[in-house]
Amino acid sequence: MSPRFIRWLSNVCLVLAGSLLCVPGHARGEAKHEPSSPAVRSELQAMRGIVKASTQAVLFSQIQGRVKRLPFREGARFKKGSSLVQIDCDKYRAELAGAMAEYEAKDKTHRNNLQLATLHAVGQLEVEVSAAEAKKALAAIRIMEINVRGCEITAPFSGRIVDVLVHEYENVFPNDKLLSLLDDTSLEIELVLPSNSLSWLTRGGRFVFSVDETGRPYPAVVKELGANVDPASQTIKVTGRFEKLPPEVLAGMSGTASFPVPHP
């Protein structure tokens, strides 16, 4: 059978009202392959973000005095409990010693009055007044102890020095800023996304954060979603974290977060 004849048989030709009508094979009930439904695809949505330290603090002076020692400089690393600032404490130690002597005298007076009261040599009023004086002297000791502890400021966490705000031998006063610190062992990525991102964004979702300063992309995970949507800008704050903390990334660096957004 010739190929031409086979092609002719692929159509059924009918003569209707003097015209030739050729019906394709699939119209005669032959199998027809319908296109499959489109697969779920995704596109990338890019948002700007900033790298921040999850823990940071500014240390203030609690007492007045001369800065005796600043062992760490800007950028230096320290461990939790390390001595960061030492203030001359001679004055406060002397005041503590005086407060302890005052309490010792008041306490002895009170004890003596208690003994005299058993002999009805003093009245109850004298006993109560001496007890109050002893308590007052004890409170003064506690205040002096707090001042002495303020002579040395220790690190509340491990991290790095961001800024040194005083110099050695300077005189500082209560509530003066001394040091700015941050914990660089737990960096976070702060993002601000459109509120409609909540339709596909979930806690634990993965994304890629490309840091401008290093020129490299880093895998990251959504750590937390903001508690509210800003009604004016219709945005929500999102916090992410690096899957593996890159040593070359520093707090303050900025970059672009790329999220895979699913679309039907």
Q: What is the topological layout?
A:
Elements: H1 3-9, E1 12-16, E2 19-23, E3 41-60, E4 65-69, E5 77-78, E6 83-87, H2 90-118, H3 124-149, E7 152-154, E8 159-164, E9 171-172, E10 177-194, E11 206-211, E12 216-225, E13 235-242, E14 254-263
Antiparallel strand pairs: 1-2, 3-10, 3-14, 4-6, 4-9, 5-8, 6-7, 8-10, 10-13, 11-12, 11-14, 12-13
Structure in a nutshell:
By secondary structure, this protein is α+β, with helices and mostly antiparallel strands. 23% of the residues lie in helices and 40% in strands. The chain has helices spanning 3-9, 90-118, 124-149, and strands spanning 12-16, 19-23, 41-60, 65-69, 77-78, 83-87, 152-154, 159-164, 171-172, 177-194, 206-211, 216-225, 235-242, 254-263.
Describe this structure in words.
The chain is an alpha+beta fold. Among the domains are: 1-30, no CATH class; 42-55 and 185-263, Elongation Factor Tu (Ef-tu), domain 3 (Beta Barrel), CATH 2.40.30; 90-149, Helix hairpin bin (Helix Hairpins). It is built from 3 helices and 14 strands. The protein has a 6-stranded antiparallel barrel. A 4-stranded antiparallel beta sheet has the order 7-6-4-9, with no helix packed on it. It has a two-stranded antiparallel sheet with strand order 1-2. Strand 11 (206-211) and strand 12 form a beta hairpin. Helix 2 (90-118) runs antiparallel to helix 3 (124-149). The protein is elongated, with a radius of gyration of 39 Å. Mean pLDDT is 85; it is low at 4-42.
